[in-house]
Q: What sequence folds into this?
DNA sequence: CTGTTAGCGCTTTCAC
DNA sequence: GTGAAAGCGCTAACAG
């Protein structure tokens, strides 16, 4: 591998400039028109301007209103949000922690999620503040953001069973919603996809095609998401009256190697006991399964069926294209913000928890069982 | 495909609650300790507290300082950022537009970029405000954010040649930096990766292995990024004294189909004229190339070599694992924020433009030319 | 109907 | 050394 250098090159139109002839120097905040300018321009008091702008029913005469609006237009006025926020003691910001995606890992759905979240937040008059936190202790960052009044609320994702952030926010009585569940004894607002339903759909589909020897690659037992998906696998088998073969559940970590290991493990079973179909707790593991299976001479989509989970980008371009389970990310974002809006408005919430059904995306990695 | 339903299920610990017994109701902003509380607690004036907190050399007696700090600790005080910002007429926020990633497309590097950007911004005392904009006219959103004082600066990415956002921000004289170049006649601060150098590395490597018939899938001529990368391809050929075969440049859009089309196009050449190696302007197209090539019976990494660009997640798990060019994303994020910090501090900037060299990641999709 | 004014929480100049 | 007070830009009582 060629060494990575970070060389700095003077590019053509790039000259060393002092700041006084530098094109991107701010007049930041300076000389923006204020409400006073509008008032002067319109020949009214600042209160009148404020009333007009906030559509208050202070009984402003229509002609005055027009004058004010005209003055606003002329001076190009827009209310300063910082001042507004100070007055209202709010920030208009919703905090969302952005997680590092290590090189070589996949950000399953979080980039799309962020987009729809931001969009929904903006529709409600909020903006998203994305922040990071050290791997060690996230809580302190959340705490600082609260104590300094930086944000009005949080959206969490990537939650764990006893997520300390959730514990903390519940204790602080600070507004938040979560994409993902946590300790079932904790009462807080969350939205999630029904991993059990998703996996049930996947396994039902395999059973419908005639598979009986269906195996699953699962996560360690402490993973909430993993156990939900596993439950769907078990449900589907039970529904179909297929007895569970204990060796058909293989647990491993979130990496490609787990997929390899699972296939190697099952290849040690007698040939007529080896699974004809494999479902996996996430796409990355499915790719590991496929790679190792093909190395062993199996043909995925023909002599072996594989289903992933999450519909990570690019999986549709694998050959065979991966059959997988997709979460309704835009809807989840919208739902979270809708709940948050109610919370922030101190309105009663009809439902504090919402589960969305994921959908099975059928592509080419599944076929009927080989005879 | 199974229909997507969005069912809402009452989960076990989820009861319909009115807000007065709802666990996540805010006391938002209410009863946070203010500087007054600290002053009262410490028995000093609020000015003194402010001096201590801001490390001002107003000659505060050491004993007073200790009293204040103790009081701060006792009441759990943290300065309200909104008030601070109002006073300083700034927002402490850097705006970054988050782009929608259509289902089935790949967010090449922007999710990692966002993370490192946020991290660097925080190290400089800023936070990132991520916003979205309608596909149509981005400028209005930028304008609103400026006029309302929502942000102190912007970071742009995904720039085009005559990017209207850049034109607008230059005209407004508003602080921003850009990940990516634009119209070369415009003078503004940007950081980019040297696509020419990256592609040159890729092609040099192929030449070193003995390839002479090297083709490239490029973007339309109006793409700045595409033309930079293409220039690297041309450079490398020229350096090696390999005459350019005009049919070896195939231009297409940003989709998988372009890769298919290119291979089909070249397969119509006489066998001894067909390229033995193909470089592509981006990984997604490389995947299209690989899929179509293998469909035609070629063996990638053996009878055909392929190199992508961007090192999109998962490409390392393709078989053959994709050889590609990687951008130093964390460094780019840091560099951008460092420049922005200077701009905002109104300090002179030694270099307004920085190019980083990307690195060739050698994996399995390349081999020596077949004989 | 519209204007005057008191803050929101903080920083900073200017007196003492 | 420390405190009083003005003011950042805005909203919303309260007068008039």
A:
């Amino acid at each position: 591998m060629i060494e990575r250098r970070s060389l700095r090159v003077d590019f053509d139109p790039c000259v060393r400039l002092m700041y006084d002839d530098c094109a991107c120097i701010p007049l930041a905040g300076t000389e923006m028109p204020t409400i006073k300018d509008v008032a002067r321009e319109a020949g009214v008091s600042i209160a009148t301007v404020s009333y007009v702008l906030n559509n208050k029913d202070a009984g402003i005469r229509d002609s005055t209103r027009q004058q004010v609006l005209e003055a606003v237009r002329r001076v190009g006025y827009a209310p300063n949000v910082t001042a507004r926020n100070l007055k209202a003691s709010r920030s208009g910001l919703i905090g969302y922690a952005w997680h590092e995606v290590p090189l070589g890992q996949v950000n399953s759905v979080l980039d799309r999620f962020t987009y729809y979240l931001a969009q929904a937040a903006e529709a409600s008059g909020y903006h998203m503040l994305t922040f990071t936190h050290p791997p060690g202790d996230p809580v302190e960052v959340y705490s600082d953001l609260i104590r300094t009044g930086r944000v009005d609320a949080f959206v969490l994702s990537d939650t764990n069973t006893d997520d300390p952030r959730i514990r903390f926010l519940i204790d602080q009585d600070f507004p938040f919603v979560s994409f993902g569940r946590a300790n079932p004894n904790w009462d807080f607002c969350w939205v999630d996809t029904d991993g059990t339903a998703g996996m049930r759909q996947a396994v039902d589909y395999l059973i419908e095609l005639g598979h009986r020897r269906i195996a699953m690659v699962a996560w360690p037992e402490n993973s909430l998401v993993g156990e939900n998906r596993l439950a769907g696998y078990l449900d589907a088998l039970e529904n179909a009256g297929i007895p569970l073969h204990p060796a058909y559940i293989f647990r491993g970590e979130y990496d490609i190697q787990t997929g390899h290991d699972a296939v190697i493990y099952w290849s040690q079973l007698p040939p007529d006991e080896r699974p004809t179909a494999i479902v996996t707790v996430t796409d990355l593991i499915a790719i590991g399964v496929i790679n190792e299976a093909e190395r062993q001479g199996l043909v995925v989509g023909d002599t072996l069926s594989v289903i992933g989970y999450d519909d990570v980008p690019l999986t549709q371009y694998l050959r065979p294209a991966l059959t997988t389970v997709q979460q309704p990310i835009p809807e989840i974002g919208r739902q979270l913000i809708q709940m948050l809006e109610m919370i922030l408005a101190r309105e009663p919430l009809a439902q504090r928890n919402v589960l969305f059904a994921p959908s099975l995306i059928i592509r080419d990695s599944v076929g009927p069982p080989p005879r």
Observations:
- Chain A touches chain B through 126 residues (CB under 8 Å).
- The radius of gyration of chain A is 28 Å.
- Chain A has three domains: 13-87, 93-193+329-356, 195-327.
